[in-house]
Sequence to fold (42 residues):
Amino acid sequence: MLWSDPENEPPKELRDAHDMLRRLGILMALAMVLVMIVIGLR
Fold:
């Protein structure tokens, strides 16, 4: 690894989009669990 090599880090927009997708995935998983519970209670 040379000092002149660029940092292996994605741009800020890409990191923000990845964080948003991860949060959306967690939210979707929680929503699915909630739907399963509601269906189970009927």
Summary: The chain has a mean pLDDT of 89. Residues 13-42 form one domain. The chain is about 70% helix and 0% strand. Residues 29 and 35 are 10 Å apart (CA to CA).
